[in-house]
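How it folds
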Amino acid sequence: MAPRDHRITLLGKPGCHLCDDARAVIARVAEELGVPWEERDITQSPEDYEKYWEMIPVTLVDGVQLDYWRVDEARLRAALSA
């Protein structure tokens, strides 16, 4: 699978400084590798809020949780190369 065939999702909420840090890493890696990504606000989904409120930011690759609190850039790149 090529990196561009994957999808990254960042789960966060407004005012989250760790989310800002995660967004910067994800945006940089996604741009370099041509990977689409999206951001979801957990306050807009009761299910997301209940599941992730203590863990944000949460990084998903193809819907599978990869990281929480911090984005490990090396792990993200490895997941996108698989």
